[in-house]
Write a structure and sequence with these properties.
The protein has helices spanning 5-18, 44-57, 69-73, 100-109, and strands at residues 22-25, 62-65, 86-87. It is mainly alpha-helical. Strands 1-2-3 form a 3-stranded parallel β-sheet, covered by helices on one side.
């Protein structure tokens, strides 16, 4: 949304100081009719570097890739699985997301294993 590189660095270190357990990272989805509709500045490389920065500065935190992953990372989105612990699927607050079945296939194709919580009825 217009943050500078220094802003992103400051955020990463502030979150480290706070010892945040979970970091959901959203990437801007420019939506027609909003003040940010013309912002199309993110590149896959920038997004991946931001994820790696968060992992490096917050090694104990759960990094969760959320909204905008599909649009901004494109076919590089599977690489986000390396610095992240999890990804959001199916839908976000204002936009649809990747189908769970497609995300599961992407995860399997990258050689990662699934963790699931067994819920007893």
């Amino acid at each position: 949304m217009g943050e500078t590189d220094d802003d992103v660095l400051d955020l990463a270190f502030a979150l480290r100081e706070l010892r945040v357990d979970s970091l959901p990272l959203n990437f801007l989805i420019p939506i027609d009719g909003t003040p940010f509709e013309a912002r199309r500045e993110l590149t896959p490389g920038y997004c991946l570097r931001a994820l790696c920065l968060m992992r490096f500065t917050n090694p104990a935190s759960e990094i969760r890739v959320a909204g905008g992953r599909e649009l901004n990372l494109g076919w590089f989105q599977s690489l986000a699985l390396y610095p992240a612990n999890s990804i959001f699927v199916e839908g976000y607050l204002t936009t649809p997301g990747q189908a769970a079945s497609a995300a599961h296939q992407m995860i399997a194709d990258m050689g990662f294993e699934f963790e699931s919580l067994e819920v007893e009825a």
